[in-house]
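Figure 6 in text form: structure in, sequence out.
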């Protein structure tokens, strides 16, 4: 049950831009789950490092639901151009993940 609630939170926190799922932030508001400011100098923003960890976790799920597949594919397709780490990593994911199936 705890894992299911955690996965629900992951899906609710995924940032949607122009109707498309993208990546995740470093911090989210504990009540609204909206992107939130961390320290004074950290404005809310998409985070490549955190998104890579989330996507790796989602890809480890055996027999993923359509919602999990959509989250993975959205994160890969919407890889943050300014995040070299996520962009490079997303190319590797594309080679191992097609249409909800691990190759």
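Output sequence:
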């Amino acid at each position: 049950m705890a894992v299911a609630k955690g996965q629900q939170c992951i899906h609710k926190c995924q940032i949607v831009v122009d109707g498309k799922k993208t990546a995740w932030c470093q911090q989210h508001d504990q009540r609204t789950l909206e992107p939130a400011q961390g320290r004074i100098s950290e404005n809310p923003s998409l985070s490549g490092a955190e998104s890579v960890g989330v996507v790796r976790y989602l890809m480890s799920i055996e027999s993923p639901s359509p919602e999990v597949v959509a989250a993975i594919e959205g994160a890969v397709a919407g890889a943050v151009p300014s995040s070299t780490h996520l962009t490079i990593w997303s190319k590797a994911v594309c080679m191992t993940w097609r249409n909800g199936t691990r190759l």
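Caption detail: Residues 76 and 93 are 7 Å apart (CA to CA).
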